[in-house]
């Protein structure tokens, strides 16, 4: 079938192999499986999945809205979209690859992979419906669908697969020789690695609108290639109707083999740092960790004491700052692409930003106040200090509204932290451009100040310090029993590491963005914006930890107070 549809890199193939299929009945997709029975089983199944975002809400019902057969020689499978309806909030759409297994195959799934089972049938005990992402045959079939640029029409929409020119080099040898393996790093999506060459990311929760991971990946593959960003190879999208925006179901990218996520490599470096300090009698000089102090230090070479005490991680932090700068420069490099062209901080945007800062502060500190008595006693002093300084926090956000801002808004990563970067041993690869998964697609695609990414990475360094500190303190037993003197020593060491690693990152970033149009024209404006986004990030973290990990509330609490300028070194406290 001929088509004029464009591929992801903008080229129009002379001919696209495609399949038109009208799905008129459920039995065409999963013969022998009751649709009603599957829908009845979905709420319980979904609540047990790590990638399901609605765990805190009550499900009213789940309905399979679209079911598209996936051509597969060794399995009976389909790609379905399920609408999840809640009692107290708006519905969401989830991508559910489903398969039917009978007899010995069903018994094998029940015995070896019971977590894949979606539904069983009392009337047919030898039959199960399972999550097909755990089926290598299905994963091979999906890869083939993308590589062949398949199109499938349903009664209510159309599935379309697209590729970029980068797929040709990645698919040699032939794609059918690449054995699929499910990645263990499942969070808000599910990933499959094909022979250490390609990785398919299936977005479990999908919305109308192009996912930023696809949009930014396409830009950085076809317009401004960056070695540190894995190339986009292809994608799978579904459009509900002619006038609706496409929903991104999956992206196919090159795989960075043998790499470790930077969160893990940073914790390793910190563990070595703390171990070295155990045998050293040299006490690092105390250094302030506020935004102004960090920026001041970027004007000078890194001191010998910092290089000696922190070690080779300082060089790594500098390289990461350079790679981050190169990413931001690339994303702001096309003034003719409306989706990526830099834009000014308009008065309307500044008012919106300021109001959002006030709102998140009120919500976060309101939660802190309500949960004050539930916090461990050792955290209440810091919590009370922050609550008493709420007006000071709000005052720190006023310059966003009151002063002229020369910085520009661009597309950026949107959820930048150590877990979104891979370390190959010599260099870095930046991944996962989808933004914060719980935010709407439209919000994730908005242009923001690139310093938001910088703030996210600095906050990630701070989190890494405390994670390693907790681990170090617990080596000799319960960390909550660590004495005030020992804790003060560890925190002093951790703060030293954080300050100089942050300075190394910032110094390199500012060097490689010196001519960039998106950075502020003055050092004072740079300080104000970086301070604003660091505070915003830490306040967001505080709300998250209060809801999900109360024992980690200490980290954003300390971060906020340090940004406000508190001298925390002399306090008597325990973990």
Characterise this structure.
This protein has 575 residues and is α+β, with helices and mostly antiparallel strands. Residues 1-6, 10-25 and 567-575 have low confidence and may be disordered. The protein has 2 domains: 26-254, no CATH class; 291-405 and 450-564, Aminoglycoside 3'-phosphotransferase, Chain: A, domain 2. Helix content is 42%, strand content 18%. The N and C termini lie far apart (66 Å). It is globular, with a radius of gyration of 26 Å. It has 18 helices and 18 strands. Helix 15 crosses helix 17.
Strand content is: 15-25%
Helical content band: 40-55%
What top-tier CATH class of the largest domain fits best?
Alpha Beta
- At the third CATH level, what is the topology name of the largest domain? Aminoglycoside 3'-phosphotransferase, Chain: A, domain 2
Largest sheet: 7 strands, antiparallel
Strand order, largest beta sheet: 6-7-12-13-10-9-8
Which stretches are low in confidence, meaning pLDDT under 50 for 5 or more residues running?
A: 1-6, 10-25, 567-575
CATH superfamily of the largest domain: Aminoglycoside phosphotransferase (APH), C-terminal lobe
Secondary structural class: alpha+beta
Average pLDDT confidence is 88
CA radius of gyration is: 26 Å
- How far apart the termini lie comes to 66 Å
Q: What would you say about this model in short?
A:
This protein has 575 residues and is α+β, with helices and mostly antiparallel strands. The chain has helices at 35-47, 103-112, 136-147, 167-170, 212-222, 262-278, 291-297, 304-310, 313-331, 347-370, 377-388, 390-396, 398-402, 441-444, 451-473, 484-512, 523-548, 554-564, and strands at 59-70, 76-86, 92-102, 117-121, 124-131, 151-153, 158-163, 180-182, 189-194, 198-203, 205-206, 232-239, 247-254, 260-261, 343-344, 408-409, 421-423, 428-430.
């Amino acid at each position: 079938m001929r088509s004029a549809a464009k591929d992801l890199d903008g080229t129009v193939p002379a001919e696209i192999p495609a399949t038109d299929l009208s799905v008129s009945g459920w039995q065409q997709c999963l013969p022998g499986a009751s649709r009603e029975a599957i829908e009845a089983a979905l709420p319980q199944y979904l609540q047990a999945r790590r990638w399901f975002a609605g765990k805190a809400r009550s499900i009213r019902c789940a309905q399979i809205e679209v079911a598209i057969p996936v051509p597969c020689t060794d399995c009976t499978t389909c790609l379905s979209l399920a609408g999840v309806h809640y009692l107290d909030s708006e519905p969401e759409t989830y991508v559910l690859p489903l398969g039917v297994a009978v007899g010995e195959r069903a018994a094998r799934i029940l015995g070896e992979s019971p977590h894949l089972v979606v539904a069983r049938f009392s009337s047919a005990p030898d039959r199960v419906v399972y999550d097909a992402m755990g089926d290598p045959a299905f994963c091979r079939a999906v890869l083939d669908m993308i590589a062949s640029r398949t199109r499938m029409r349903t009664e209510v929409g159309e599935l379309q697969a697209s590729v970029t020119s980068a797929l040709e080099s990645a698919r040699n040898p032939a794609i059918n020789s690449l054995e699929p393996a499910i990645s263990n790093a499942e969070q808000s999506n599910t990933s499959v690695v094909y022979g250490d060459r390609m990785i398919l990311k299936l977005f479990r929760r999908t919305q109308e609108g192009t996912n930023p991971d696809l949009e930014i990946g396409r830009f950085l593959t076809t317009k401004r290639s960056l070695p540190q960003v894995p190339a986009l190879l292809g994608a799978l999208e579904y459009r509900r109707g002619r006038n609706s925006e496409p929903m991104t179901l999956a992206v196919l990218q090159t795989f960075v083999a043998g790499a470790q996520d930077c969160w893990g490599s940073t914790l390793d470096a910190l563990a070595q740092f703390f171990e070295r300090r155990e045998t050293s009698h040299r006490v690092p000089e105390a250094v302030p960790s506020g935004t102004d102090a960090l920026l001041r230090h970027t004007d000078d070479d890194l001191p010998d004491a910092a290089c000696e005490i922190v070690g080779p991680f300082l060089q790594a932090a500098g390289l990461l700052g350079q790679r981050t700068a190169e990413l931001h420069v690339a994303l702001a490099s096309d003034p003719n692409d409306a989706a990526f062209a830099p834009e000014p901080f308009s008065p309307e945007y500044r008012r919106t930003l300021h109001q959002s800062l006030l709102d998140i502060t009120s919500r976060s500190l309101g939660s802190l106040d309500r949960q004050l008595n539930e916090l461990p006693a050792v955290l209440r002093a810091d919590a009370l200090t922050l609550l008493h300084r709420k007006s000071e926090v709000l005052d720190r956000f006023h310059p966003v509204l009151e002063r002229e801002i020369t910085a520009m808004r661009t597309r950026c990563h949107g959820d930048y932290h150590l877990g979104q970067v891979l370390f190959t041993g010599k260099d870095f690869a930046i991944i996962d451009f989808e933004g914060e998964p719980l935010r709407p697609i439209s919000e994730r695609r908005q242009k923001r100040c690139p310093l938001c990414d910088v703030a996210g990475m600095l906050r990630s360094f701070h989190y890494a310090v405390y994670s390693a500190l907790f681990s170090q303190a617990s080596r000799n037993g319960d960390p909550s029993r660590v004495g005030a003197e020992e804790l003060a020593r560890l925190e002093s060491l951790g703060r030293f590491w954080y300050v100089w690693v942050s300075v190394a990152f910032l110094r390199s970033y500012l060097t490689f963005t010196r001519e960039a149009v998106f950075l502020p024209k003055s050092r004072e404006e740079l300080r104000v914006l970086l301070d604003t986004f660091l505070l915003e990030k830490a306040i967001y973290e505080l709300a998250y930890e209060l809801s999900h990990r109360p024992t980690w509330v200490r980290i954003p609490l300390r971060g906020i107070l340090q940004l406000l300028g508190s001298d925390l070194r002399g306090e008597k406290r325990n973990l």
